[in-house]
Amino acid sequence: MLNRADTLSETSRAELEPGTMARWWAWQFVVITVATVYLSPSQCNNEEFSSDTLINNVVSDPRTGRLYVGAVNRLYQLNSDLAVESRFETGPKKDHRLCTPPVTDACEEAVETANHNKLLLVHPTKNQLVVCGSVFRGICSLRNLSNVEDQIYFSDTNGEKSYVASAEESVSVVGVMSSYSTRESKKLPVFLVGKGYGSHDSTKLIATRILEDYSEWVYFDSIVEASAVQANPFVLRYLHDFRFAFKEGGFVYFLFSRTLGVQDNKNFTFISRLCEKDQNYYSYTELQLNCSASNKYNKAQAAFVGTPGDVLAQNLTGPDKYGTVSASDKVLFVTFSSDVETSSAMCMFPLKSIDDRMRKILDACYNQEGFIDQNLAAYSPYSSKSGNLCSSSNNNNNNKKIRVEEFPCGAEFLLSPLASKPAFALTSEPSLVRKGHMTAVAVSVEMEHAVAFLGNANGEVLKVHLSAHPEMYGRVPSEVTGEKVNKNLLFDSSLQHLYITTEKKITKVPVQTCHLKTDCQSCVSMKDPYCGWCVLEGRCTRKQDCSRSEENNTWLWSPNQACVQIEAFRPANLSCRKTQQVEITIPSLPRLRRDDKLQCVFSSFETEAVTLNNDPVKVVCSLPSPEQIPRTPAQQDYVSVPVRVLVNETIEVTSGEYRFYNCAATVMKNQNTPCISCVTSQWGCQWNAQDHSCSDESDAVSGDHVIKPQQPESCPQFESPNPPLIPVGHQIPISFQGKNLDIYKDSTFSIGTERMERVELEVVKEEASKFKFPGFRFEYNQQQEVNVSFHIKERETQRKIDSTLTVVLYDCMTGREDCSLCKHADAKYDCVWCSSSGKCVYRELCKGQEEPALCPDPQITEIIPRYGPLRGGIPVTIKGTNMGITKEDIKRITVAGVECAHLEDRYSVSTSVVCEIGPKRTPPTDLPLGNTDGQVEIELKGGGKGTSKVLFTYRDPRATSVHPSKGPSAGGTVITIQGDFLDTATKDDIRVSVGTVPCEVLSFGEGITCRTGRYQGSKFPSEPLTVTVWYGKNTSTNVSAAFQYFDNPKIADYKPKSSFFCGGRRIVVFGSGFELIQSAMMKVISSSDEDSVKATSQEFVETAFNKNDTVLEFDSPPVSDGESFRTFLQLDNMMEELKGFDYLSNPHFDNFSHTVITDSSIIIVTGRGFSKAMSAKEAEVFVGDASCQVNTLQDDKLILYAPASKPSARSKRHRRDATDDLLELMVKFGHGRWVVGLVSYPKKDDIPLLIIIPAVILPMLLFIMISIYCYRRKSRQAEREYEKVKHQLESLEESVRDRCKKEFTDLMIEMEDHTSDLSEGRIPFLDYKNYLDRNFFLPSKEGNDDPIITGKLLIPEVRRASTVQALNQFSNLLNSKAFLINFIRTLESRSDFNARSRGYFASLLTVALHGKLEYYTDIMRTLLLDLMDEHVQNKNPKLMLRRSETVVERMLCNWMSICLYQFLRDTAGEPLYKLFKALKHQVEKGPVDAKLKKAKYTLNDTGLLGDDVEYSVLTLQVLVHGEGPDATLVKVLNCDSITQVKEKIIDQVYRNLPYSQRPKVESVALEWRPGSTGQILSDLDLTSQKEGRWKRFNTLAHYNVRDNATLILSKVLHTHPFHQHQDLHDEQNALLEDDNTFHLVRPTDEIDEGKSKRGSMKDKAMTKAITEIYLTRLLSVKGTLQQFVDDFFRSVLCSSSIVPPAVKYFFDFLDEQAQRHDNVDEETLHIWKTNSLPLRFWVNILRNPHFIFDVHVTEVVDASLHVIAQTFMDACTKTEHKLSRESPSNKLLYAKEISTYKKMVDDYYSGIRQMVPVSDQDMNTHLAEVSRQHTEKLNTQVALHHLYQYASKYYDAIIQSLDEDPAAKNKQLTLRLQQVAAALENKTTDL
């Protein structure tokens, strides 16, 4: 439901007077408040009640059925249908825990405090309700049960004795009504209360409270004093949590959990008992209750007392259980949770067993000194005395036995209180175990079966049948809100309904929904003990609702899972050509009365039915006639007809199927054997050979030609073919036998088969029963063997005679491609090798030639691998042909002249030989090694020899580097090993170890990747470990000290701690050591089968989208609805559970009707569960495509401000459908989206012009006249003010002059310092691969984790070899220009191939073709020519190359990056680096606000620090822990934050290391030791200064660090896990709350604004300087950097020095194309050149120095670089920029230099034009050299794999494009792509 509050328009509001405005705003507040409070979604439903606040307690009055609801600040009285009869606001009240009631203004701490209801008790005899709240120390009141607004008694002046409940929300309170007998035998109404510990509560564990004034007692006075259970010492350390209280059999019971009072805080569940008459608590006894033998479920959550019913009572009865339990005995049902698991359980304890066990405990203490069977069974809890108190306190000196029955309420001389020892706890095994928490329980009995209703933490109520094996059979039909079910789960007075209470809602639901099931099967499948199928009424009902339910079989109980079934038909089936009666046996048919009418319905045929008198479970009815039976379906020999048995025409009793068979259709099963198929069918059919027909069995037809059922041997048939083997390609006669052919003695026959291509051959009769035919020349080559079945027909009639003739057709050639394979064939095939044809054929097909005794020499086609280590020891696979018939044929193998040992067990006939190579003989060291490569030779025993064409090379691999060099001890780090010749041998031959830890090999090639195992050592970080690669048995190579194991990452905290099922909530995890991790995933595990704890689980995973050393960011994964989830972080191999993270049900939104939005209107969206896992800041709401401001988010409502003007519809579909201007209102929480309704904006009425003109002109005239009058009056006053302002301007001018002088002086000093600083360091250039990775792929979605950067090719090992081979084929395909051009054009024609995809594709293509850059350049030229033609034809040539929207534009950008890399290193890199360092140095000379990212010295006016910050320069002496005694001098500012100081120290100490090798700020700690003790410095700690609600970052000045102070820099090795210490956890939480922190300049606060409004304007002027004054600093910084900017521009734009050949080559290309087109003028050509080089490459490098250097660019430095880059861009354009006073400061700053730079650009372009041209040959030579130098470093295989994914995605379109291209057809490109697809992904092709 959505509501809006219409408000006044802006215009009318402005016209209101101040008083009216105040009233207007008050009215607005009232409207919003009323909407918030009363717009509850449940008001319209009598079966549902919603509270505005959290519901604490619910009780019912059994006399009236009323409910009383105690909520926060509310008390409700509801009728049995949940309608509100009365309500009362109980809070908030002015109170504080430190205040003593009555609370007055004298208690300064008192504030408005919410009143939580702690206890509700119904006192029906006096019609009173006891209400206890959390305010005023837990004082109670009495209210009228008939009207809770009527307060009967309340007093807050009676002092501590009237403090009943607890003031703390977390402390549980329970109570039970009772009575107290005075000495005068007067019964006083009282209630007993049990409560836990609260720091400001009454200290009584158990108390008896009076409900009237009597004698000295007042209302709620504690009238029993029992120090043993009411004294101080026990309360704090035992941590009582009371869950339930009840009375039964003269006793009062309390159920609670507590600790044992020792150091261990484990909870145990106890039930305590008091005699109701006991006025001294002498009888107080505690018994421990264990749920499960191991007490795994140790903490009680909720309980219910009720009778068990007969069935459960019998299940509980037994000598090994609880003795005899009757149906009327009471049983305590308790739900338990576990401290060690997320599951919970329900256990049952008969009260009789509890009482019996307590009696034994008491008897042991009274008579046996506390022992049972020599084990101590009882002790006194809460006692500080040690030892056995039972033996020391027994005053019975006469040794007389004390009978417990004599003292049911204890006695003063008997020890009390008593408790059982754990060994004598009463134990019950769980009846039900569930995931998640069961928070409520209620039990009823139906038909002597107990049914439990169990509420859980997700808002569900489960229904459980408590049978011998309890089973959950369903859920209560109510809306699941995700809120936990309150422990007050109540039945109504009729026990037909259940009241379910969640956090803010109560729902009344029926205990059963039998009537919803409409057929027997669905009724009994519910297994609901309340339900059963009423057979003769056709309804699912309770038993009492079925009219004849007492008769047998008329009401079938649901849990029995049985419906009325047809057992048998007699006859079981019938021919479709006959009709007769059928007898149906129905064992469970109810006894019918005379007036009951019975019918059978066969499909649509109805017939009357009768039951047999002597057998009433048998029903007889007529079958339909043959013409009424449906036709027999094809391929089937029967038809099934549905049968229904009806009572009284409409009620279906049971149903089934009856089969009518068709003998004539049986022959269709096997048409080659019609007779055999007929007589062997299940229907008992007979075959008439004369008629050639199959019919029903009949004695009317007889003779030899009739074959009876099940006599297949009597059928006329042909059998026993000879020979059984037939070769392909050769005709062989086939003979066979005939049988039972007397009837066909004069007939002739023909034979055929499907493989004879419709040819029928004549059968020749040889003898009496022998036949033959001349055979047939079969053709077949699909497989070696195939079965061929023949049919035989009688020629005259063409009828098929039964034929079982089946032979095997075989092909010698298939699978035997060479001589050796042919000779290996089985002799039965008679295959020979035919030398003339070079094929394996049947012997008769090679006549005239003798089979050669020996096969041709072996042919070797492939060697795997082609490289092996010098020491040998690896297997080599030799593939080829004719390499022997058996493994013994191999005589000798040599590889490069070295003997190779044959591995016989891996031999494959003829095609594959595997041998293990020996060591290459190494000559003396003073002689050269000689040839290390050579051919592979194989020699056979018969003399045959084979030599390979490809060479095998001996070489030793050498590993040189390992990256990364560190990882977590849990393992899982993927390391890459680089070196020379690492691709020696194969992946199967190598193994890798890090120290002694195995490393699983992932990929093998020029580089090797492997995944580290778990480190078993205890020292962290470990010593630098050697990484060793083993090649076979004898060879290894290693990199020493290459890898270190560090301690696993530590998780300190995370927030927020909940998510909706829909996921998508931003989860931030804080900790340390995350940079060690390569893969971070948030994994949620849930049970797919919730009925079992051991259910199979399913996983939901999200990968971290942001990661640094201390922070991980995830979007919570969306999950399916489930009852319980566990959330984990998987960091490589490490898995850590995020305990306390909750998944909650998605919010529910109420629907609303169409709503009109007016100006300033408020929209209120109502529902439930909003705030459980969402905040107002995270929520998004849209009206159409415009966002709404979320003002307030409460659990049941969202308050929004709609857009002022009407937005567009969100989707095209909705735009098309929205004819009436309706817009969707959509709410977005994370990944969840809900369209909650439609809204619209009112159409504005047109106002007539005659009204508008006077309404506008008359006020204008009036305004002008008033203005003239005011002007004349004010002009004199202005003259007086003029002199004052003039004086102020003179003062201001003097101030600016002084400031400029100071800035100029600083400028000179800084120039000198800076130049000297720069000359000291070297330039940290990136290597070629990292340079290309950052330029090509850093903008990709995966960032540094992009596989193309990491080089990880994620392919299963079993497919890696074939995949690599296929990728090489794909690479060859890309080298076909026709294919590649088609590929690119096809992709660009697709609408979903967006600009981002095009850029990424182009970069992948660049890497894949890097080995052939000249070919890449040719492709780029071709595509550029097409692009030019397109732009010129469209008459917009100036737009070409402006953006990177096409593949070729990105290819050009990449081409420039490749070609200018060396120029950057040799020429332009140094001035760029000096410019960057100078800018960084200049920025850090002055204050930089760490929070606002603004600096005193910058080039960007928006990043200028607009305040004067006092500071001084400090020189620190820094010692690095563990790196010697030498100190490093570091200049810092005393206003720097600690993080800024760390950054400057790291920059100075590690100035000779590139940024990536320096320690990160988060991984180091800074310690200052001003005296004997040290102090760790940090940005925020407990000493941080607070200014109002703002907290300032700590600086050196804050810590009072002086000049020349000594600081120690050390690496942080350990951080505290977030679960170690609560105090630390709380402190970290407090410090992690951002938003309200600042560094140098505090943002203006709302409070500050209020104060400034009250202050004078003069004060504001004094405290706030004019921001524009500080613009002079821009000039200062510019002047400092001018030389460096000029040097860089000159290095880039100077044609007289070095110009890269690629630039000259490409500019000449543009010049040629400009001449080719008429409409390309000089300005257009200038734009082309600018877009292709300065704007495409240089601006990118200038803005991102980290693309070429290993440096870190801060936000402040980046802002200034942006200004310089913008200047460079302005210099390259032809357009003249007109500047004015309103132009941005950034533009004005370099306005003077722009013209100079423009001339430099023009001179540069003209100078290049005059240079000597670069020929195609020279350019190709240059490009080939670049390819040769760098291609091996790039991940070309990964690039090919990614490129193929695009080919796969658009496969059909590419195939179509290639088919339409003649050039592609000629080169068979389609076929080649299909081959690649088949190899890579088993894609179906036409091959």
Automatic annotation (TrEMBL):
InterPro entries: Ig-like_fold, Ig_E-set, IPT_dom, Plexin, Plexin_cytoplasmic_RasGAP_dom, Plexin_RBD, Plexin_repeat, PSI. One of its GO terms (cellular component) is plasma membrane. Keywords: Cell membrane, Disulfide bond, Glycoprotein, Membrane, Phosphoprotein, Receptor, Repeat, Signal, Transmembrane, Transmembrane helix. The keyword Transmembrane applies. GO terms for biological process: axon guidance; negative regulation of cell adhesion; positive regulation of axonogenesis; regulation of cell migration; regulation of cell shape. Pfam families: Plexin_cytopl (PF08337), Plexin_RBD (PF20170), PSI (PF01437), PSI_Plexin-B (PF24317), PSI_PlexinA-B (PF24479), Sema (PF01403), TIG (PF01833), TIG_plexin (PF17960). CDD domains: IPT_PCSR, RasGAP_plexin_B2. Coiled coil: none annotated. The chain crosses the membrane at residues 1249-1271. Residues 36-511 form the Sema domain. Its main location: membrane. SMART domains: IPT, PSI, Sema. Belongs to the plexin family. This is Plexin-B2-like. The lineage of its organism: Eukaryota, Metazoa, Chordata, Craniata, Vertebrata.
